[in-house]
Amino acid sequence: MRILGIDPGLTATGFGVVDVDGARLHYVASGAIRTSPDDGALLPQRLRTLFDGIGEVVRRYQPTVAALEIVFVNVNPQATLMLGQARGCCLTALVAHDLPVAEYTALQLKKAVVGYGKAHKSQVQEMVRRLLNLPGLPGKDAADALGLCITHAQVARTTAAIARVAPLRARAHAAYKDGRSY
C-alpha cells in the first residue's frame, strides 16, 4: 500500500508519501505546496494551485490511498472559512484522481505518532523522523502529512485484523474513533 498524506492549508499544504509493507514503513517523498496572496494571486488561483499541485503529486507517486487531516479552527471565523475551502479543494483533488480517502483529526494523528493527543509540533516532527528513519527533521507541514500516513497505516492494519476475526459489513460511511473513511 502506498499512502499519500495531506495536511491542508491555504498558504502551505503539506504532503507525504509512505510505502507500507506489513508492519514496515518506508519513506518515499514529502514536501509542501505553497501559495501566497503576496504573489498577487486571488483565492480562486490559490485553490487552483493546490488542486494542480496535488494532481502532480498523485501522478508522480501513484498512491493507492490518501489520508487527509480533518481541521478545526475556532479562533478566527474568516481563517476557518479559508482553511475549509483549501481542505475542500484538497479533498476534491484526491477524489478526482479516484483515490479512496481516509480522514483523521490532529488529535488522532498525535496519539498515533507520539502517543499523546496534545503533543507539540516539534514532538510530531521528531517521532516522524524516528519512525521513518529520516536523516533529519521534516518540515512542520510535511511532518503532519507523513504523520497522517503513519496513522492510516496503523488504522489499516487494525481494521484488517478486525475484519479477519469478524468480517465487517460494507457501509457507505464508517467511523474509527471519530475518524472518517470513504
Automatic annotation (TrEMBL):
GO BP of this protein: DNA recombination; DNA repair
Query: Binding positions for Mg(2+) 1?
Result: 7, 141
Q: Which UniProt keywords apply?
A: Cytoplasm, DNA damage, DNA recombination, DNA repair, DNA-binding, Endonuclease, Hydrolase, Magnesium, Metal-binding, Nuclease
Q: Where in the cell is it found?
A: Cytoplasm
Q: Does the keyword Magnesium apply?
A: yes
**What cofactors does the UniProt entry give for this protein?**
Mg(2+)
Give GO terms: molecular function aspect only: crossover junction DNA endonuclease activity; DNA binding; magnesium ion binding
A Pfam family of the record is RuvC
Give its E.C. classification number.
Answer: 3.1.21.10
Q: What class of enzyme is it?
A: hydrolase
Question: Where is it mainly found?
Answer: cytoplasm
Q: Which residues bind Mg(2+) 2?
A: 69
Superkingdom is Bacteria
* Subunit details: Homodimer which binds Holliday junction (HJ) DNA. The HJ becomes 2-fold symmetrical on binding to RuvC with unstacked arms; it has a different conformation from HJ DNA in complex with RuvA. In the full resolvosome a probable DNA-RuvA(4)-RuvB(12)-RuvC(2) complex forms which resolves the HJ.
Its biological function? Answer: The RuvA-RuvB-RuvC complex processes Holliday junction (HJ) DNA during genetic recombination and DNA repair. Endonuclease that resolves HJ intermediates. Cleaves cruciform DNA by making single-stranded nicks across the HJ at symmetrical positions within the homologous arms, yielding a 5'-phosphate and a 3'-hydroxyl group; requires a central core of homology in the junction. The consensus cleavage sequence is 5'-(A/T)TT(C/G)-3'. Cleavage occurs on the 3'-side of the TT dinucleotide at the point of strand exchange.
Family the entry assigns: Belongs to the RuvC family.
Please state what the protein is called.
Crossover junction endodeoxyribonuclease RuvC
Task: Give the species this sequence originates from.
Answer: Tepidimonas ignava
